[in-house]
Design a protein that fits this description.
The protein is mainly alpha-helical and 168 residues long. Helix content is 58%, strand content 5%. The protein has helices at residues 21-50, 57-69, 74-81, 85-97, 119-136, 145-160, and strands at 101-104, 114-117. The chain has a two-stranded antiparallel ribbon. It is globular and about 50 Å long.
């Protein structure tokens, strides 16, 4: 494992040619080394922020998906989040018990209902996302749109590179 100090990010190395596979693998290992702690800290921060609403991180994820994409089936949400359908169903059940989501008929599939936000669920997730947005404004670092786009591209490719790994 590399000793990486996230407070002192490495300067990007200007390079026009794609990295050779071995060098790419080493550099992507550095990304994984940062993504794990980043995810865990973000999850703890989200949990702390959700305490006021009494939401779990899992319910927040369901609400955020529905907020961004509109009504979805449980299997669609599971695929989108790379988590099991069973876990998503438990989170949907928790959210439904609180009146934050509701099940509606799915014209495309009679046996798989669509889940949508209720007005209350929409208000709750909007407040959560606004609070998180305020915190993310403090990241700093003078990041450019191109740097964020490159980060998203790399992480997306890394995620697709793991498509063969089962989510359940």
């Amino acid at each position: 494992m590399n000793d990486i100090d996230p407070s002192r990010p490495r300067e990007p190395v200007p390079c026009e040619a794609p990295l050779p596979p071995d060098e790419l693998a080493h550099r992507l290992t550095e990304v994984y080394d940062l993504v794990g702690p980043l995810y865990r800290r973000a999850q703890r921060g989200v949990e702390q922020g959700l305490a006021a609403e009494g939401l779990s991180v899992g319910v927040r994820a369901v609400l955020a998906l529905l907020h961004r994409h509109g009504p979805m089936t449980v299997p669609q949400m599971g695929r989108a989040q790379a988590i099991s359908r069973q876990f998503v169903q438990r989170m949907v059940n928790d959210a439904a018990a609180r009146g934050l989501v509701e099940s509606i008929p799915n014209p495309a599939h009679r046996r798989s209902s669509l889940i949508r936000l209720t007005d209350e669920g929409g208000a709750v997730i909007a407040a959560v996302l606004d609070r998180e947005h305020t915190l993310l404004r403090e990241v700093g670092g003078g990041l450019t749109g191109a740097e964020v786009a490159a980060c998203l591209r790399v992480l997306g490719l890394m995620l697709r590179g793991l498509d063969h790994v089962a989510d359940d």
